């Protein structure tokens, strides 16, 4: 069983297991959206250990969950509990106390996957765990891992009012892979093709592994997004349903943002509702990110964007036409929405360019105290990539997903926008282009100009 990435998560869990084996009980909490690889990671971690792995099911009564859990204990621990384990447990407190007793001599790993489902989605299961941990767990060789896909609820359990507040020795949130790490799932795709795969799949391992390097981008999209039951078509509602109650208008807000509304007033206008609570919960759960202009000279009005590239794709391209796709008209929908797809890919490309600029700082190409971000002034001028050293601009960058070559005209336009910024320092200003297409030879005559390709972004150039 091979794990791609997640080295930090595995190392943290392994260190906790070593402490548990030494008689220091460990409580670990691992959470994140569906499809990010939590179950795959924890199943891999449990291999070769004396362990019980249990996945809670939706909308099951406690009685059924407890009976299923007792069955899992008997099946996975086998003969050693044949005369000890009951056919069911009267409560989760009794179940956890029983397991703590089994860890007095030999180390025991317990994984409760989708733990918030164990008490109907309420946080009181965390109170039960906390009470058992405080009153009945002392020096057992026990490691208990709680995992869940309901991000907001898991963070509520860990928060100041939650039952697990400051109880867990390991608190690890798993998010979709960033673009550079996700490259490991499709190392043979040409760089520009991989960026398109990432724009559709986001950093979700299963999505990326289903993308075929033998097919074109269009063929992969047709198979995975524009065919009834396609993985990319059906996964977004499942991911969102773990965490969001649609009665709060979350779908309308996310749809408005995917349609291009980035400022609070415009999001509220398109969603036709009050959005303060909704937007704040989406932000806290990691579905929405707040973007502020870098430095002091830009706009003070923040922008709001969908933080998950796959979900942004689903809302921008697939959501409104899902019924048509399910009705067999996916090929026509794909052609009709091609412009929206290209706009989405360009946004993902721009984000990847900023990540690349941060690596230029890390490797010494740019001064070590340079901060990378975005900049805009009201709605008059916008800069895709800005690098500030102190309060002075060190780099001004433009991202171009189109394949047409860069020209002197593009440089002149970037200079014009840079004129809205404070004056650069003595080192001068670097003008950078991240482009899918080539650059006109005339740009080579400008020593302050840098051009980067998709291969450079992915570290293969």
UniProtKB/TrEMBL annotation:
Record domain DUF234: where: 314-403
UniProt xrefs under Pfam families: ATPase_2, DUF234
InterPro entries from the UniProt entry: ATPase_dom, DUF234, P-loop_NTPase
Domain ATPase per the UniProt entry, residue ranges: 18-209
Protein name according to UniProt: DUF234 domain-containing protein
Gene source species: Polymorphospora lycopeni
């Amino acid at each position: 069983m091979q794990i791609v990435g997640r080295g930090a998560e595995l190392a943290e869990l392994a260190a906790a297991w070593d402490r548990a084996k030494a008689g220091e009980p460990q409580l670990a909490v691992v959470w994140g959206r569906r499809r990010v690889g939590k179950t795959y990671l924890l199943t891999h971690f449990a291999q070769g250990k004396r362990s019980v792995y249990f996945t809670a099911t939706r909308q099951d009564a406690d009685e059924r969950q407890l009976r299923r859990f007792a069955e899992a204990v008997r099946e996975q621990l086998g003969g050693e509990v044949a005369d000890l384990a009951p056919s069911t447990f009267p409560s989760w407190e009794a179940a956890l106390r029983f397991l703590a007793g089994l860890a007095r001599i030999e180390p025991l790993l317990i994984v409760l996957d989708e733990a918030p489902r164990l008490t109907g989605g309420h946080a009181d299961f965390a109170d039960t765990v906390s009470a058992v941990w405080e009153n009945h767990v002392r020096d057992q060789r026990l490691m208990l891992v709680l995992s869940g896909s309901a991000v907001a609820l898991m963070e509520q359990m860990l928060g100041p009012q939650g039952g697990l507040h400051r109880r867990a020795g390991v608190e690890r949130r798993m998010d979709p892979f960033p673009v550079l790490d996700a490259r490991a799932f499709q190392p043979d795709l040409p760089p520009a093709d991989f960026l398109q795969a990432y724009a559709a799949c986001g950093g979700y391992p299963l999505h990326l592994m289903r993308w075929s390097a033998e097919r074109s981008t269009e063929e992969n999209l047709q198979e995975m997004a524009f065919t009834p039951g396609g993985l990319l078509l059906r996964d977004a509602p499942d991911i969102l349903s773990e965490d969001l109650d649609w009665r709060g208008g979350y779908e309308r807000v996310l749809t408005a943002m995917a349609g291009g509304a980035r400022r609070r007033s415009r999001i509220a206008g398109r969603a036709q509702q009050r959005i303060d609570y909704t937007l704040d919960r989406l932000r806290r759960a990691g579905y929405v990110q707040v973007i502020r202009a870098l430095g002091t000279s830009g706009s003070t009005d923040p922008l709001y964007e969908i933080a998950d590239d796959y979900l942004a794709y689903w809302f921008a391209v697939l959501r409104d036409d899902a019924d048509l796709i399910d009705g067999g008209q996916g090929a026509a929908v794909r052609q009709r929405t091609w412009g929206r797809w290209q706009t989405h890919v360009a946004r993902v490309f721009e984000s990847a360019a900023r990540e690349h600029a941060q690596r230029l700082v890390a490797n010494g190409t740019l001064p070590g105290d340079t901060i990378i971000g975005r900049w805009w002034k009201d709605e008059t001028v916008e800069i895709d990539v800005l690098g500030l050293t102190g309060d002075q601009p060190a780099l001004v960058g433009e991202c171009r997903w189109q394949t047409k070559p860069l020209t002197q005209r593009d440089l002149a336009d970037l200079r014009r926008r840079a004129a809205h910024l404070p004056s650069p320092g003595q080192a001068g200003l670097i003008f950078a282009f991240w482009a899918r297409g080539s650059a006109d030879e005339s740009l080579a005559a400008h020593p302050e100009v840098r051009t980067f390709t998709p291969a450079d972004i992915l570290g293969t150039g």
